[in-house]
Design brief:
This protein has helices at 14-23, 40-50, 59-65, 77-89, 105-117; strands at 5-10, 30-36, 54-56, 70-73, 94-98, 121-125. A 6-stranded parallel β-sheet has the order 3-2-1-4-5-6, sandwiched between helices. It is of the alpha/beta class and 139 residues long. Helix 4 (77-89) runs parallel beside helix 5. Helix 1 (14-23) links the parallel strand 1 and strand 2 (30-36).
């Protein structure tokens, strides 16, 4: 079996917990080694829950110090373009960026080409709780 993908996550809040919980089913194929949040205690809790070895409060320090195959970017849309470009520059080739990918359509096109040229998979995640409501029958 191939070595697992080495992953990092930026912003350790609810959405990143959902992704990490879903990823547990693929534990042999991927591993979170680093997480980053501007609140150290939030990142510490995330790391303990999901098995990340390294905790950061500075995204740039994380991508400079870690050799990441991929990243989950659960930050606000205003930071996505910067974070995607940083991840690509640091060698990450599997990037899941939470919605919205960018603030404007043109910005999405401008990061699409560098991602493709690098051979990276850049994906916009659209997470929402799956809630089924019983609909009243029409009788």
């Amino acid at each position: 079996m191939a070595d697992p993908l080495i992953l990092g996550v930026v912003r350790c809040r609810q959405v990143s917990h959902w992704h990490a919980s879903a990823a547990r089913r693929l534990a042999e194929r991927l591993r979170f080694v680093a997480c980053c949040d501007i609140r150290r205690e939030t990142a510490d809790v995330w790391a303990a829950e999901h098995g990340a070895d390294h905790v950061y409060t500075d995204y740039e320090a994380m991508i400079a110090e870690e050799q990441l195959d991929g990243m989950i970017l659960a930050t606000c849309p205003a930071l996505h373009r910067e974070h995607v470009e940083g991840a690509l520059g640091a060698g990450a080739r599997n990037i899941l960026c939470e919605k919205a990918l960018t603030l404007r359509g043109q910005q999405a096109l401008e990061i699409r080409d560098p991602a493709a040229e690098a051979g990276a998979v850049l994906m916009e995640g659209y997470m929402y709780p799956s809630i089924r409501r019983r609909m009243p029958s029409k009788t």
